Amino acid sequence: MLVTGIKSKPVYAPLQADTRGRYHLMLGMGVGAAPLLRVIAEMRSAAAQSLRNTRVLFVPDAGNAADAGNAAAAGEPGAAPAIASPEIEHFRAAAVAEVRAFREAPALLEQFRATLGQSLMGTRLYVAGPESFIGLVMKIALEFNLNKDEIRAEECGTLARRVYCIHCRATTENVRTNIARCVDCRRWLLVRDHYSRRLAAYMGVMVDAEAPGELPPLKEVFL
């Protein structure tokens, strides 16, 4: 069975603009565009000058993203085509300081780490997207000692989980079922509700340790 009610499970409040911040860094994925655009609208109403110090790093939904056919966007032969999507166009129309699009979350997270390394005091971080994406962002933010007053997050999109195998320490991505096969040791894992912020993952424990081969029904529960 899933273990419910464990306090380690993150709870995220709706995003709100913090106009006390001097710099604003926004990270989003997929349907996370809507909360970020809402915050930008709040800034425009309350402190429009904040938009000049706002940067957006975003991964569009695969179905909405397309090559913009602008391979020379950086003026370099052989440069990768720019990424276009309705969300990216909305961000650019908002006249923020910078908008960068990425095809996948790992590339965004790599840039996020580099950006944090150059950030100044007074930076506020806004994150919107699936829980697994938020967890990976938070993991990096904690490495840079950002405190809770500097970070805001809103969960939206898929509830699929990152699952950490307590037996071999591998992490399985995008788990939607109550039990999942570890990508490394191939054990069947019970996906618990216990969440580790340090690992940005839910704990997975061998489900048939006492009765090998006896597995509970496989059910999609994290949609």
Structure description:
The protein is an alpha/beta fold and 223 residues long. The chain folds into 2 domains: 23-155, 3-Layer(aba) Sandwich (Rossmann fold), CATH 3.40.50; 161-206, no CATH class. Helices cover 22% and strands 27% of the residues. It is built from 4 helices and 12 strands, in the order E-H-E-E-E-H-E-H-E-H-E-E-E-E-E-E. It has helices spanning 33-46, 86-93, 105-117, 131-143, and strands spanning 23-29, 54-59, 66-67, 83-84, 98-101, 123-129, 151-155, 161-165, 171-175, 179-181, 188-196, 201-206. A 5-stranded parallel sheet has the order 5-2-1-6-7, sandwiched between helices. A 5-stranded mixed sheet has the order 9-8-12-11-10, covered by helices on one side. Strand 11 (188-196) and strand 12 (201-206) form a beta hairpin. Helix 3 (105-117) runs parallel beside helix 4 (131-143). It is elongated and about 65 Å long.
